[in-house]
Amino acid sequence: MHSLARLAADRIHVEGAEEEEEEEEEEQMLLVAAAVSVAGAEQARLDRIAKRNASRIYLTRPTLLPSPRHGTPWTALHASQSNRAFITTMGFDVDTFNFILWSGFGVKWYEEPLLCPDATGGGSCPGRRSLDAAGALGLTLHYLNSTMQEISLQEIFALIPSTVSQYINHCLNILLPIL
Fold it and tell me: What is the model's pTM?
């Protein structure tokens, strides 16, 4: 009898160990399933981002030259004071460009408020403008004289898209009464 009870106890112990092992395997499988599910969701999120970014065709600050006022194609062209370069890109020679600049464009560029959403009172913030008056006039004349896309202007002047659009609109309003 004693050995029969021992056999029954051993069998119960073995069955209990098997149940524990099955429970552990089930927990492991649930953990693996959860990990696969999380990894799949993360991959789907990354795929959506990649698909969305592929359709974005605009430049951001890190992809442009560091300063719109130094070392850009525009600053090199302006510094050259070459009539041929000015006429080719902006439709005016150097003297005419400077005449427009000094006939009120430069003063208005610095004095007329340019909306600065982060400026208190929404006033003008000329010290924070990415371009000086000559750069702003150059940007506008490039825009008016060229068939290039705005992305090329962004690269030439090292400006983000919203700044290019804002500056062109502002400068056209300045130029209208001057011309």
Answer: 0.61
